[in-house]
């Protein structure tokens, strides 16, 4: 596939001939992809095509599976994240992640958001208060929780829990946010709120989102990559992917002929 290059856009992640195997089974093949700053990049494709594997590679979470082997490069900024001297903790601070199922800690709303800052050594109460308020505001949930910050996060609705998890991710001030089907467990109203939030967040962050929902990809992303059987079949501006795809497989998928 020809590498998709944009001259006037700043790249934040650059994936170069990336291959990944689970044991003997290859899950990703020769991925070449540039991810741009302050954009929403959607990853679409049928079940099992490698979407989650791909985004979990971007912050090296995929290495938690012991049988994983990889080849190729992923550059964050100018550095190869697989270089032996690259600090994976730093990477995960810069490249945060939000999961499919909201996964708040069984702690207070406040402690959920303050967690990352505390781990990074912030102790002063007034500073923690500031971080918690700012993150909850950015995640568009402050008004709903500001009077019950000491309540347990498990008492929030699923949609609120997901926005809380987004706040928790924002609190460590990442540059990139990876989202693996963040709305698939949510009702339509909560989904709408998270979609609006993603669009607001791209002013300050770069977002990569895996979604099974093609309308969602079309609504909220700037660029879309269509994955199939571990390959990137097509990667381009979202409008082009949905209205003028260059590959027959992409067209078949977006028109619902398979997948
Ligand atoms: N932990 C694992 N061990 C072994 N194989 C795995 C593991 N995780 C994923 N795979 C395999 O890698 C391939 C890609 O899976 P992946 O979960 O990345 O796909 P996906 O596109 O995200 O799927 P879905 O849309 O169903 O979530 C599949 O063949 C899957 O079986």
Automatic annotation (TrEMBL):
Q: Which UniProt keywords apply?
A: ATP-binding, Nucleotide-binding, Transport
Report which superkingdom the organism of origin falls in. Bacteria
* Gene Ontology terms for molecular function: ATP binding
Gene3D superfamilies reported in the protein's UniProt record: P-loop containing nucleotide triphosphate hydrolases
InterPro entries with a match to the protein in the record = AAA+_ATPase (IPR003593), ABC_transporter-like_ATP-bd (IPR003439), ABC_transporter-like_CS (IPR017871), P-loop_NTPase (IPR027417), PstB-like (IPR005670)
* Boundaries of every ABC transporter domain copy: 2-254
Q: Record's PANTHER family?
A: ABC TRANSPORTER I FAMILY MEMBER 17 (PTHR43423:SF1)
Q: What is this protein called?
A: Phosphate ABC transporter ATP-binding protein PstB
What organism does this protein naturally occur in?
Virgibacillus sediminis
**Taxonomic path:** Bacteria, Bacillati, Bacillota, Bacilli, Bacillales
């Amino acid at each position: 596939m020809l590498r998709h290059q944009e001259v006037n856009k700043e790249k934040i992640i650059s994936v170069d001939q990336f291959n990944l195997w689970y044991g003997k089974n290859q899950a990703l093949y020769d991925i070449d992809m540039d991810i741009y700053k302050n954009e929403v990049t959607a990853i679409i494709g049928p079940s099992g095509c490698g979407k989650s594997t791909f985004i979990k590679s971007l912050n090296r979470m995929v290495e938690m599976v012991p049988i994983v082997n990889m080849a190729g490069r992923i550059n964050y900024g100018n550095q190869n994240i697989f270089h032996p001297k690259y600090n994976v903790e730093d990477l995960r601070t810069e490249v945060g992640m939000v999961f499919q199922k909201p996964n708040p800690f069984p702690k207070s709303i406040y402690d959920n958001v303050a967690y990352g800052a505390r781990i990074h050594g912030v102790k002063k109460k007034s500073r923690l208060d500031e971080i918690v308020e700012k993150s909850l505001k950015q995640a568009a949930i402050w008004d709903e929780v500001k009077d019950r910050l000491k309540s347990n996060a498990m008492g929030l609705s699923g949609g609120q829990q997901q926005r809380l998890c987004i706040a928790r991710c924002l609190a460590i001030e990442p540059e990139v946010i990876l989202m693996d089907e963040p709305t698939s467990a949510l009702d339509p109203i909560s989904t709408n709120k998270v979609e609006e939030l993603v669009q607001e967040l791209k002013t300050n962050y770069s977002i990569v989102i895996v979604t099974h929902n093609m309308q969602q990809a079309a609504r909220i992303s700037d660029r879309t990559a269509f994955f199939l059987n571990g390959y990137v079949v097509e990667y381009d501006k979202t409008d082009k992917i949905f209205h003028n795809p260059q590959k027959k497989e992409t067209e078949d998928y977006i028109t619902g002929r398979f997948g």
